[in-house]
Amino acid sequence: MKETKWWQQAVGYQIYPRSFNDSNNDGIGDLPGIMEKIPYLKKLGVDFLWLNPIFVSPNVDNGYDISDYQGIAPEFGTMEDFDKLLDQAHQADLKIIMDLVVNHTSDQHPWFLQAKLSRDNPYHDYYIWHDGKKDTPPNDWPSIFGGSVWEYNEECGQYYFHTFAKEQPDLNWDSPKLRQDILEMITWWLDKGIDGYRVDAISHLKKADFTLPQGNDNARPFAHFQNVAGIEDYLNELKNVFAKYDLLTVGEASGVSAGQAPSWVGPDGYFKMIFEFDHINLWQKTEQKINIPGFKKALSTWQNGLSHGQGWNALYMENHDVPRSISLFDVPEDLEVTAGKAIAMMYFCLQGTPFIYQGQELGMTNFPFTKIEQIETQNSHYQYQELLAQGLTKKEAMVVIQSTTRDNARTPMQWDDSKNAGFSEVNSRLAVNPNYKKINATAQIDQPDSLFSFYQKLIQLRKNHPVLITGEFLELLPDHQQMFVYKRLGETKEFADFLVLVNLTDEVARFNLPEQKEAQLILSNYTVENSLTNSEIFQPFEARLYQVASEK
Ligand code: NOJ
Fold first, then answer.
1. What Å distances lie between residue 310 and 220, 303, 348, CA to CA?
2. Element (H, E) at 49
3. Catalytic residues
4. Are 14 and 20 within 8 A, CB to CB?
């Protein structure tokens, strides 16, 4: 068997601390709340946790606008709580990776408060400034959250650059002093014993020449500050710091194609893996539904792009920025559990490290938002205003917002059927999804047919069958409009390949498959016979995992 590293064998669980578990009943999840749930996470079987930012922040972008990199946000607890959490997690054999947000800070970070005072301030150079007259920004580049990337600052009479909200000024990675401060801060955390980083918005570090116009490339509106040539110098500095530790590093790398990925995550890459965006269309402005052929193509392109040791994939279906996957697949209510299992098997058996986002293992779904006041995330408010400006009515705009907003993923975790789903004794800013009486952890953990139990089984299968970790990916029926079918190839002639067949639609699917010798059913979401025939009919969202005779 090929040798594998811990981060290749591991399964991750993403915690959005604000909405995970509230231990002090202030309506906000916190670090002691996470500690309380370590037994739950162990029961599920995951190996590491990724915590969304827990640092001091004015929360314009829920923690992604940091004003103190070395301080814990008081609503989440104290540094002592963090140290305790890290220690308890390690004792339970759970690793912890943190969010590293170094493309930008909050505009309330002491560096920025200094930087904006005058052009001569020693911190001025920590950010990206440009001369220009008020109301005439230096160029027409659009910010990812809407509006221009430029914001005028009266104090020093210049524009500053922001990829995201105007309260999140981008750091100037050309400044050696800034880089040194950032690398020292990273080392400080790594020396504390954290096990790695999810690296936020990292493909945006380098900006192109500001004289370039945005142009008409509507498919790539952020191209001038996404994976721009020269970024490798900055990334190599990060890599050199990371290389001193045995870490899991996963870069959030929008704009990096599967073809470019080997230089990012290959044997000499900057990170161990990256989150790609091709299979999940982030920031899409219209109602969001999955296009099955495009979805299959994106996944197989990434599997093939990083095959044969050219790199390693980070596998995910949900996170704090995208709607819930069951809702994305537009699943009828009576098929939600079945579809949740199909989605789970479909991505979990690919080659890479799977991440589960909190509540995904329970089949949590989008929230039925009807009013903009129910929404917290700032970019949805921008988007709403844009839709109204385009002439949509409030009701029409809310249909779009309801299916696309990131708040769908950020509602409180559904622990049980008591008030506020057991998340807190008080109401939180984002309401609990009204379906919590039916969809909650207590209803599922000891139920052998539940989605939670299905995830447990998938995690154990990965642990028991190294082929599910190392086996190469081979897609079958690439042109089928409903079925995603692939093999994971074992290395020997033994009984060693795995075959995954998933109907990604709510309609019956028919297909012909070349004969599969010695097929043995390992897991399914329907009650089915062991056999697999050459001409099959799969029920809506039916999913099966077989062991079959090796191709080799
Ligand atoms: C990506 C994060 O996942 C998202 O939540 C955040 O708003 C932006 N980066 C800006 O940091």
1. 26, 10, 20
2. strand 48-51
3. 200, 252
4. no
With a 6 Å cutoff on the Cβ, whether 64 touches ligand 1 is yes
Distance 384 CA to ligand 1 centre (A): 19
- Least Cα distance to 152 among 135, 171, 169, 164 occurs for 135
- Asked if residue 285 lies in contact with residue 240, where contact means CB atoms within 8 angstroms, the answer is no
pTM score, whole prediction: 0.97
CA distance 490 to 473: 10
Could you tell me whether strands 472-476 and 314-315 are parallel, antiparallel, or unpaired per DSSP bridges?
unpaired
* 530-550 pLDDT per residue, tens: 889 889 999 999 999 999 988
Q: Six-digit token pair at 389?
A: 């400006």
Distance from Cα 64 to the centre of ligand 1, integer Å: 6
Alpha-carbon gap, residue 509 to 536, rounded angstroms: 8
Q: What is the CA radius of gyration of the chain?
A: 23
Q: What is the helix, strand, coil percentage profile of the chain, to 5?
A: 30, 15, 50
- Residue 61, ligand 1, Cβ within 6 A: yes
Total residues belonging to the chain: 552
Determine how many CB atoms are found less than 10 A away from the CB of residue 236. Answer: 11
Ligand 1 center to 137 CA (angstroms): 24
The residue nearest atom 11 of ligand 1, judged by CA position, is: 64
Please compute the mean of the pLDDT values over residues 451-461 and round it to a whole number.
98
pLDDT digits (tens, 9 = 90+) for 86-117: 999 999 999 999 999 999 999 999 999 999 99
Token look-up 């010695």 returns 518
Nearest C-alpha to atom 2 of ligand 1 is from which residue?
200
- Beta strands 196-199 and 95-100 are parallel
Instruction: Report the atom number in ligand 1 closest to the C-alpha of 104.
Output: 11
Residue with the smallest CA separation from ligand 1 atom 6 is 64
Q: Which residues contact 191 (CB under 8 A, 6 or more apart)?
A: none
Q: What is the DSSP letter of 381?
A: H
CA–centroid distance, 98 to ligand 1, in Å, is: 14
Distant-in-sequence, close-in-space partners of 522: CB < 8 Å, separation ≥ 6: 461, 498, 545, 546, 547
For ligand 1, atom 4, the nearest C-alpha belongs to 321
Cβ contacts of 80 within 8 Å, gap of 6 or more: none
CA nearest neighbour of 486 among 290, 346, 354, 343: 346
Beta strands in 317-363 (DSSP E): 353-357
